[in-house]
């Protein structure tokens, strides 16, 4: 009888340990889930759903939602990143309207980190670019670049084409990083020419704007001046 009681006590203890381990694992998983920024891909299937989606878009700040695209037409998918604090509420709203949606990105932070690791080593080859080449400094337009890589490219362009480009520091960010602007023209000290101002990088999440500006810098403006003025620039 004593042996049976001892075995029962051991079994109960093991079950308690297992239960608490399971509970801890579940709570830890729940905490991790609650910290994730998720992206929902939502497709409105009717005019009513489209109007509701437009309402969410116009009041995105209230729902802690970041619309990556604007809802325009029925059956057009829209990507929305939702703050973890409001994810359940946001999902409940979608379910109430029987919206067609799924989670396209489960963890935005992990996706960004994975993309950073996956960046090919040649992404920053403009640092070692042969300036005797006529192709100009290298820049990989098949991926997004961080601020250090973009600034490095701007310095490389200025070094390659000093007669028609000049960098200026027009201010500093909250993190005390220099805000660069590149002046392109010929001659650089002639101020009576009409100018075009191109803004990029106003919002950190708008990655395409920086890439578009870099594309304009070399493919449009620099090549235009090289062609029009037939400059022979050597280092």
Short description:
With 235 residues, the protein is of the alpha+beta class. It contains 6 helices and 6 strands.
Give the SSE map:
Blueprint (H helix, E strand, L loop, with lengths): L1 H33 L3 E6 L3 H12 L6 E3 L10 E5 L4 H10 L3 E6 L2 H11 L28 H14 L4 E8 L5 E7 L22 H23 L6
Antiparallel strand pairs: 1-3, 1-4, 2-3, 5-6
Describe the structure.
With 235 residues, the protein is of the alpha+beta class. It has 2 domains: 33-111, Alpha-Beta Plaits, CATH 3.30.70; 120-233, Aminopeptidase (3-Layer(aba) Sandwich). The protein is 44% helix and 15% strand. The strands form 2 sheets. The protein has a 4-stranded antiparallel β-sheet, with helices on one face. Residues 26-33, 122-134 and 230-235 have low confidence and may be disordered.
Based on Cα principal axes, name the global outline: elongated
CATH H level, superfamily name of the largest domain: Zn peptidases
Into which percentage range does the β-strand content fall?
5-15%
Lateral arrangement of strands in the main beta sheet:
2-3-1-4
What is the average of the pLDDT values? 76
The secondary structure category is alpha+beta
Backbone CA Rg: 27 Å
Percent helix, as a range, is: 40-55%
Low-confidence stretches: 26-33, 122-134, 230-235
Order of helices and strands: HEHEEHEHHEEH
Helix tally equals 6
Largest sheet features = 4 strands, antiparallel
Distance N terminus to C terminus? Answer: 95 Å
Q: What is the CATH topology of the largest domain?
A: Aminopeptidase
